[in-house]
Write a structure and sequence with these properties.
- By secondary structure, this protein is α/β, with parallel strands linked by helices.
- It has two domains: about 65-160, D-Maltodextrin-Binding Protein, domain 2; about 165-350, no CATH class.
- Helix content is about 65%, strand content about 10%.
- The protein is built from twelve helices and five strands.
- It has helices at about 10-30, 30-55, 70-85, 100-105, 135-150, 170-195, 200-230, 235-260, 265-280, 295-300, 305-315, 325-350, and strands at about 65-70, 90-95, 110-115, 120-125, 155-160.
- It has a five-stranded mixed sheet with strand order 2-1-3-4-5, sandwiched between helices.
- The radius of gyration is 28 Å and the shape is elongated.
């Protein structure tokens, strides 16, 4: 008769105890909620790579607006030729006079002016690198290729150049990034130290007052650094200060709204909005006209892109048509503040009965 194999019951019990202890220790060290947050961080990291590489890996011009100055018959033919280019990198229209064309590029309404010569084969292209060096280079490249194919030469003049301290027009972008980072960090700090969700509308209002004061100081600091300290963006000090205060308050108010709605997870949504989506589409390294369709579409609708464009228009284009950009930032700020106040107030109502 075959004997049954010996089973060490003591070892099995010890193993079971060890497994139970490990599960308890693991549960104490890393809760299910923490695992969900870790997964969310993983997705944010992947999203960061996807967004930045997706936006910048293959910049290409798309319908960059330029105007053409020439006699009617000549200019119409040139416009048709430019607008029929594969991929539509340039969108050209005819302008009757040189003065009108120059006015358009100096106020930022167009990104290039092509002046066709009627007496020779050398034409002139006016660009505005203050609105973005990469954008001006793209216009010069596309128009230069057209001119070469037509066996004509081209003289390029930068009529709105970047300021000496504003290399490639990037100072506005990094200034906005600094303002936004400060705004959402101060709101996140208030949430971490005092609870992500204010317990009453009154407390939410107090937090908004604190971030408003911080926004005024941060806007002032940024304007001083880029202007008086570094000389990157000279002039327009008070306008930059005002834009900065609004941008910082916008970032803080939106962060508060996300925290009130979603708790600590709201910070992740803030990073998604401002860092992963907002920064690549903001017109920093490449203007929106050079970005893929998705990033180009969201650029002017997010605070990042609206703020960068607002600074460009104030510093280089006499603040022409800046109202729309300011309204975008203000709408985000007002919406964030309203959500934070309303939701905090509604959550406190049952406790007051």
């Amino acid at each position: 008769m075959q004997e049954e194999p010996h089973v060490d019951r003591g070892s099995e019990r010890k193993l079971a105890i060890l497994e139970k202890t490990f599960r308890q220790d693991f549960g104490d060290a890393v809760s299910a909620r923490t695992l969900v947050l870790i997964l969310a961080v993983l997705l944010l990291g992947i999203g960061f790579t996807l967004s930045y590489v997706g936006a910048f890996h293959d910049p290409a011009p798309h319908r960059i607006p330029i105007v053409v100055v020439a006699p009617a018959g000549v200019s119409s033919q040139s416009v048709r030729q430019i607008n029929s280019l594969r991929g539509q990198p340039i969108s050209a229209t005819v302008v009757a006079s040189y003065a009108r064309a120059v006015a358009l590029i100096r106020n930022g309404s167009t990104d290039g002016v092509l002046i066709l010569s009627t007496t020779g084969r050398r034409d002139t292209l006016l660009v505005a690198s203050g609105g973005g060096a990469a954008l001006a280079t793209a216009v010069e490249t596309v128009v230069g290729n057209i001119e070469s194919a037509a066996q004509r030469s081209l003289t390029v003049k930068d009529v709105v150049p970047s300021q000496p301290g504003d290399f490639r027009g990037l100072s506005s972008f990094y200034l906005v990034v600094g303002w936004l980072v400060g705004g959402y960090l101060v709101a996140a700090l208030l949430g971490i130290s005092s609870g992500a969700r204010p317990t009453t509308g009154r407390r939410a209002f107090i937090r908004l007052q604190i971030v408003a004061l911080y926004a005024i100081l941060a806007g002032l600091g940024g304007a001083l650094v880029v202007g008086q300290v570094l000389g990157a963006l000279s002039g327009h000090f008070f306008a930059m200060w005002a834009i900065g205060a609004l941008v910082v308050f916008c970032a803080a108010a939106v962060t508060m709204a996300f925290q009130v709605l979603f708790g600590v997870a709201g910070i992740g949504l803030t990073i998604l909005l401002f860092v992963i989506l907002g920064n690549p589409s903001a017109g920093g390294a490449y203007s929106a006209s050079l970005l893929p369709p998705f990033w180009r579409a969201i650029s002017s609708a997010l605070p990042n892109g609206a703020a960068v464009e607002a600074l460009h228009r104030v510093v280089y284009f006499h603040a022409y048509d800046v109202t729309g950009n300011i309204l975008v930032i203000a709408t985000w700020a007002a919406s964030g503040a309203a959500i934070a106040l309303i939701v905090s107030t509604l959550r406190a109502l049952p406790d007051s009965t």
